[in-house]
Backbone:
């Protein structure tokens, strides 16, 4: 079963890394994430991500003075059909604090996971193997959907930056 099929049945929650892989055309992961974003654009898949994602994707382009890249990220996150950029509300922060207290997960991850749970997403797509299992939310790893020839090359915590 392919990744897009795995994500059916509700909105998919997307971690920051997917947006980086798409915009910066990461050679290893672009073939995995491109079909996800195509399905979102075509209306076959609804998706959400935390507004925290905007902060995370803008840091490196702004640090390097790449305003054009920063604008591409912001346009993708704020003007994509089928993708909801979810504000970090007080309720999400409370839920994130509870997740952090219960599991020890890092604050950014807790916010992403709390956003996914608040929007009743059945799956959270990431490349972070340190995320805890949570009731009602399947954590799907991008690396698990790579063609077999690439799987051995990918370290447990992948960063293509």
Residues:
């Amino acid at each position: 079963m392919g990744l897009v099929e795995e994500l059916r049945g509700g909105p998919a929650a997307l971690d920051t890394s997917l947006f980086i892989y798409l915009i910066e055309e990461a050679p290893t992961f672009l073939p995995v994430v491109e079909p996800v974003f195509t399905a979102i654009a075509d209306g076959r898949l609804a998706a959400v991500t935390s507004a925290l994602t905007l902060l995370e994707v803008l840091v490196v382009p702004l640090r390097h003075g790449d305003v054009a890249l920063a604008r591409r990220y912001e346009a993708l996150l704020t003007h994509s059909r089928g993708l909801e950029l979810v504000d970090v509300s007080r309720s999400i922060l409370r839920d994130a604090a509870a997740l952090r207290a219960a599991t020890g997960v890092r604050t950014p991850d807790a916010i992403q996971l709390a956003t996914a749970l608040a929007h009743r997403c059945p799956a959270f797509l990431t490349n972070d193997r340190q995320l805890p299992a949570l009731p009602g939310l399947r954590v799907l790893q991008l690396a698990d959907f790579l063609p077999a020839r690439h799987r051995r090359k990918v370290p447990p915590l992948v960063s293509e930056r």
Remarks:
- DSSP finds eight helices and five strands in the chain.
- The longest strand covers residues 47-50.
- The mean pLDDT is 90.
- The beta strands are 12-14, 47-50, 83-86, 123-126, 138-141.
